[in-house]
Amino acid sequence: MGGCIGITRSRSGPMEGSSGTVSRPNSGALRKNQSLCHETIRWKSDVPLTEGQLRSKRDEFWDTAPAFEGRKEIWDALRAAAVAAEAMDFQLAQAILDGASVSVPNGYLTECYDEWGTRYQVPIYCLSPPINMVKEACGRDSPAEWSEPADGGAALALRLRLSTTCRDLELRVGARHTIAHCKTELHALEGIEPWRQRWFYGGKLLGDRLLVEEARITPGYVVQVIVSTEPRPPS
User: Fold this and answer.
1) Are residues 122 and 161 both part of a single domain?
2) CATH number for position 80
3) Following DSSP, what letter does each residue of 165-200 receive, concatenated?
4) In the chain, how many domains are there?
5) Structure pTM?
6) Residue 219 is part of a domain; what is its CATH number?
7) What own/partner pairs with CB < 8 Å and gap ≥ 24 does 184-189 have?
8) Are residues 122 and 159 in the same domain?
9) CA 80/CA 14 separation, integer angstroms
10) CA 181 – CA 196 distance, rounded (Å)
């Protein structure tokens, strides 16, 4: 994703790094717990990201990580700790980790362990924004990218599975409609605001600008719709 170029300390100057993995001198036995470092990791993304793209990557990670390994309650605790640490509330972040019995041998959330010894790795982009983040486009530079094709194309029936209910529903759209348009249609059908929806197919996040036909969704296969229950972030 990117390389770590340094760490901004809240109490001292930056500590330089050269890779995407944050390390700290070994101060004892393997997996000995450390207090969470009061530091902000500085890193540069290989591909510059907008705030919206970074938020989407974070949401995708936190929504899918529990499905692969570890316990959901630990992932939830790590997410809450990451949010607190990014806001420089390290005392709250430490309290969250202690309450969930999570150890951080290197003092960073990039590598954690629960009380059963299960390893949890949080990517750097979930802990701090890259130094080369770019501003969101105002919308006037490329209006055609966001406009719907005049011809919606062939009619298709998408099979959607909502994370809130785990039930399937059918949504009829055009092959040349964008995913953003489909989210609007789902909003009209189920009352779920588009900003709360994240669509996944084949393990990949479907971007708002992607056309349905470009997603190459096999008829009858399920598109997972992860519905956020969090308050809408400020624009």
Assistant:
1) no
2) 1.20.225.20
3) T--EEEEEEETTSBHHHHHHHHHHHH---GGGEEEE
4) 2
5) 0.53
6) 3.10.20.90
7) 186/160, 186/225
8) no
9) 25
10) 14
Residues 121 and 64 in one domain: yes
DSSP state of 217: P
Instruction: Give a yes or no: residue 132 inside a domain.
Output: no
Range of the domain at 217: 155-227
Give me the residue label for tokens 């540069």. 44
Per-residue pLDDT of the chain (235 residues; tens, 9 = 90+): 565 555 554 433 333 333 343 444 333 334 578 899 998 889 998 888 888 888 888 888 888 888 778 898 999 899 999 988 988 889 999 999 999 999 999 999 999 999 999 999 999 999 999 999 887 544 333 434 445 555 677 888 999 998 888 889 999 999 999 999 999 999 999 999 998 898 988 878 888 888 999 888 988 899 988 888 776 655 5
Q: In 3D, which of 50, 48, 47, 41 has the Cα closest to residue 19?
A: 41
Q: How far is C-alpha 71 from the chain's CA centre?
A: 18
Tokens of 205: 């996040």
Q: Please tell me the total number of residues recorded for the chain in this structure.
A: 235
Residues 119 and 68 in one domain: yes
